[in-house]
Design brief:
Helices cover 67% and strands 6% of the residues. It is an alpha+beta fold.
């Protein structure tokens, strides 16, 4: 039996659900409401000491960290394979995982926070808002969220996010031009799955073409992702109308600022 501790519009949960769908697996979903701080419930922390989602429980084994969960699923349920057999290709796949885990995850969090969750937190009573910040539990994450809450897109952490996406999309364009249509060739792998929710979030916020307007191979990749059945059943079909509406409402409000900061960043890089 597979149990997934899940939260609907979490990008980390989304990539696990895409992997589960591609493997043709059934699972029991248990909702962990991040806005009610249920991830810090002592019972949940016994499963996931980091207090994050998702957590996958399979045959009494709790697996945390979405990248590791996806790799676990590919090893435990090898058909269809989502990891290349060739060692060099596997290393390239894991390079995309590092792009996500070491920059893009924080990046999508900061952009989402500055667009949507910042507005939601502004309407909270002060005592509830402070509880939310205290409950983060990780001083580094707290500093990021406090900065983005106070400064919005002008936070240095949002600039880090813009830069992380710029580096990733630049590399994607180069590699897709070499051996697309998927990142590692003719079929999707965990490299593609790891990136799908992070690109989808930008698209749903109305921000994606800030980075991709002049990158045709990335644009073509995203178009085929949207038609891939496992993406649709594992991500896009599961987003509620309310969640879509929130993203479509708030994302465009920060678009001009994001585009301006990206343009300034690119100018600085070219001048260096």
């Amino acid at each position: 039996m597979i149990v997934l501790y899940d939260f609907g519009n979490s990008v980390c949960c989304q990539k696990v659900r895409i992997t589960l769908r591609e493997k043709g697996l059934d699972w029991q979903a248990i909702r962990v409401d991040l806005f009610k701080a249920e991830q810090y419930d002592p019972k949940y922390l016994k499963l996931n000491p980091k207090g994050m989602v998702p957590t996958l429980v399979h045959d009494s084994n709790a697996i945390i960290e979405s990248t590791l969960i996806c790799e676990y699923l590919d090893e435990a349920f090898p058909e269809p394979p989502l990891t290349p057999k060739d060692p060099a290709a596997r290393a390239h796949m894991r390079l995309w995982s590092k792009f996500v885990d070491e920059g893009l995850f924080e990046g999508v969090t900061e952009l989402s926070f500055s667009a949507m969750f910042r507005e939601r937190m502004k309407t909270m009573p002060e005592e509830i808002r402070q509880v939310r910040f205290r409950n983060i539990g990780d001083p580094r994450r707290r500093d990021r969220f406090m900065s983005t809450y106070e400064q919005g897109v002008q936070s240095p952490f949002v600039l880090h996010a813009i830069g992380a996406y710029e580096r990733a999309f630049k590399y994607m364009e180069e590699k897709l031009a070499e051996h697309g249509p998927w990142l590692l060739g003719d079929r999707p792998t965990l490299a593609d799955i790891n990136l799908m929710p992070l690109v989808a979030r930008l698209a749903y916020l109305g921000l994606l073409d800030v980075w991709t307007a002049d990158r045709p191979h990335v644009t073509a990749w995203w178009e085929q992702v949207q038609q891939w059945p496992s993406f649709r059943t594992g991500l896009s079909d599961l987003i509620t109308d309310t969640e879509y509406a929130e993203m479509r409402t708030h994302g465009p409000k920060i678009r001009d600022e994001v585009a301006a900061r990206r343009a300034a960043l690119r100018q600085d890089v070219m001048a260096a």
